[in-house]
Amino acid sequence: MSSDPSSEPPLAEVDLASLVPEWIDWAEAARRLEVTVAKVRTMIRDHELAAAVPAPGAGQQLPADFIVDGLPVKGLPGLLTMMHDNGYDDREIIAWLYLDQDFPGRGIDALLENRGSEVKRRAQAMAF
Q1: Which residues have C-beta within 8 Å of that of residue 114, sequence separation ≥ 6?
Q2: pTM as predicted
Q3: Best CA proximity match to 80, nearest among 66, 97, 93
Q4: How far is CA 72 from CA 9, 94, 118, in A?
C-alpha cells in the first residue's frame, strides 16, 4: 500500500477484472463444490462465498481462489460475515482480499496459506 491512502481508489471502484486472476461462474462454482447452482446462490447470500460482476456485461462471478478442494477456502465465510457486518459489500471485500496488503502479500494469499487469523485481525482493525 502506498503511504498516501487518498491516492488509491475506493474499494468499490477497483477494477476487479484485472485484480483477480481467474473468475468462475455460478455453474462452475457449483460443479467444483459438488452442489446445485441454487446452493451456490444460498452460500453467497449467507456469506459463505462472495460474488461480484468483474467487468461490465460479465454477470456475477466468483474468484476461483475462493474454492479449494471442493470447499470454500478456510476462513473465508467468517471473514465475509465479519466484513459484511461492518458495512462492506462483496465487491469491496473481493477487492480488499486481492489488493497487496501488509500481510505480507494479499489477503487471499494469507487465506490460502492458512493464515486466516491474520486476515481477520486486519479486517477487524478496518472497522475502527
Answers
A1: 74, 75
A2: 0.88
A3: 93
A4: 28, 14, 18
Tell me the sheet residues that pair with 106.
100
Q: Kindly list the domain boundaries of the chain, sorted by start residue.
A: 19-126
Round to whole Å and give the CA distance between 95 and 99.
6
In terms of residues, how long is the chain? Answer: 128
Residue 108 has which C-alpha cell?
487471499
Name the helix (H) or strand (E) containing 100.
Answer: strand 100-101
> Does 97 score more than 90 pLDDT?
yes
**CA distances (Å), 116 to each of 41, 51, 72, 80, in order?**
24, 19, 13, 12
At 64-90, the pLDDT tens digits run: 999 999 999 999 999 999 999 999 999
